[in-house]
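[SOLVED] Need 3D model of a two-part complex

Original post:
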Amino acid sequence: MTREKTDFWVGLFILLGLIALVFLALRAGNMSSFSFAPTYQVTAHFDNIGGLKVRAPVKSSGVVVGRVAAIGFDNQRYQAAVTLDMEQAYEFPTDSSASILTSGLLGEQYIGLTPGGEDKMLAQGGEIQFTQSAVVLEELISKFLYSSAEKEGGAQGGAAAPAMQ
Amino acid sequence: MNGLTSRITALGRGFLSAVTGLGAFARLLAAILARSGVALRRPRLVSQQIHFIGNHSLLIIGVSGLFVGFVLGLQGYYTLNRYGSEEALGLLVALSLTRELGPVVTALLFAGRAGTSLTAEIGLMKAGEQIAAMEVMAVDPVRRVLAPRFWGGVIAMPVLAAVFSMVGVLGGWFVGVVLIGIDPGAFWSQMQSGVDVVKDVANGVFKSLVFGVVVTLIALYQGWTARATPEGVSRATTRTVVDGALAVLGLDFLMTALMFAN
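Solution:
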């Protein structure tokens, strides 16, 4: 085989590898969800972030408006400090509230933003004051059990031990 | 008493030869890396090897990837269907291919297809005294023979692994969407939301690069140290496949534990 022919086939081989990588990154991976739009950072403090991960989406009305940039622990307030990369195109009032929600029953967790009514908008370095923690299933169950036990106890004239029935 | 002594001696000899082999292996790597300038000065030598190692392995890699994708599609559907989440099939196929099966199966096939031919070629060069002739002509055989083959293998391996993963994902898509009838939108969107470019795809490429270095180096080392007889070459070829496969699987466990620990 002549040299040019070998070079051609080798070039084709490398090209095929590049196509495969681009396919994996764009079609199979989440490369297309990477946005290089300019962002501004805001922070939010949560009592409990549950299973929130870095790069989890920040959604408002179900639309992705940013991503979680970093998660840390604030040792002054004993709360989780979450930094959000918000896309510059979207602005939210300073009294917006952030809550940690779950997509579907067992899906991944994301941050839901509910806009407030202030005129001032959140800017670089701003902080979201109103936050709601992630729902922890164990706490939910214990709350439910506690309240149903209390209800039963109340029906029997304040008796504390319905277990004897 | 005598039997015990000889057994202990054999144990010590085995240990010493294993450590000596590892040392010679590392020395060969250092020698090849030190003479790798030839790859830049005469890229034609490397491109010849990429053609020989890469292009000729493309068919077996592509066909294997396709069938691995088919099987992943069928088996994944069988399991996921029980939990009513067959849309996650795309995610399952793509994750298993990019993280594990793509790099590992490609490296195993690569050891069998390209590694053996490298070992046999160099072993026969030695048996035919071509390498001795080069030394007589003051041509450094490590520079002229080993370095281009090393770089050819190191470049070809990640390309082959990427092709394997791509063809496998397409095979899974064919079985899942075309044959079984899973919703194509859910198939791709679940895949895209679950496969991370850095964590999964880039780590897979890194794995395949490491496997390329290790398998190619084992093949070259076995050829280089083969005894210059037909029996020696055949034994070296066998060892290339055995050592290559063991090294790939062991390293894969180590790298998976480091990369995907949490």
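Edit: The interface with chain A takes residues 44, 47-48, 50-51, 54-55, 58, 94, 98, 155-156, 158-160, 162-163, 165-166, 169, 188, 191-193, 195-197, 200-201, 205 of chain B (CB under 8 Å).
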